[in-house]
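Q: How would the structure tokens look for this protein?
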Amino acid sequence: MDRKYGVGVVGIGLVGSEMVKVLEQRNFPAREIKIFATREREEEINGKKYKVEIANDNSFKGLDVVLFAGTEGSKGASKQWGWKAVESGAYVIDNGDDFRMDGRCPLVVPEVNAHHLSKDKKFIANPNCSTIQMVVALAPLHRYSKIKRIVVSTYQSVSGTGRAGVRELYEQSKETADSYPDIKVVKTKPAAYPHQIAFNVIPQISGISEDPAFSNYYKEEIKMVKETRKILDAPGLKITATCVRVPVFSAHSESINVEFEKKITAAQAREILSQAPGVVLMDLPEKSIYPMPLAIGGKDETFVGRIREDVSCANALDLWVVADNVRKGAALNAVQIAETLISKKLL
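A: Here is the predicted structure in token form.
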């Protein structure tokens, strides 16, 4: 008989709910799915009702894998309970950012660095959503020719902030829609963001860095730098990022300029990416075919288009990359890590 696994999910917001949905959709071999949050209640997810419990020191006994939802930037749950779950015998897969750069914790995107998984490192970190889609697209090219430098600008949807961001864009859009063509400033003070997000773009995600090595960078931008280096085993990789919040409900987009040690033509890049795991090539610009968040939301893959050779640099390419940040950028990647643990006979 095929083995079944005890699964825990800590947090049942936007990402936690999606984790449960993905586990069910992918027929993960779970004998049970236990959900933990800050208060007891019943939640309906994808038409099925689940009991939500309050976590305690004994909650994780008998579980094989525990997923911590941790909406991007949130703190606390995995700090409080993560190592307790490991001590109980479970693998922990943490979507929060508390342990991503911790040397004890591999930072894993299964299509890219599954070799970082092992039996002796049972606390596994899920990377930042914007980092995940970028490395899925760039790792196959990096294997062909080592990357020298990356310049990335992101266009990140409000779902990256969780339900509060989605609700704020929705309410502000309703309030301002009737003022066209003179889009007005909303009367309600923004709560999820420092400025109005409806009909606006905000070049700030998270708080300003206190790291002297990254003067005037926001923390989201530093995550992309440090996490990419760790995932690709490239500690000296030159990379800079500008992260922008845009008035889009779902899916992050990225404009990436990447320089390689040796030239990769646009045609070669298309051939490599057309065979890469987790990547869908959508690159017919003459027919206006390229990835867009409106079409990509709800999909599992990372979509790549607008591949072209940089006319200003001999060994550089420009790419446009789009992925659903709640699925591949969070919930799906975490579940794929658990599936990889099973396939590698680590779980």
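The chain has a mean pLDDT of 95.

The chain has two domains: 5-126+330-343, 132-325.

Upvote if useful.
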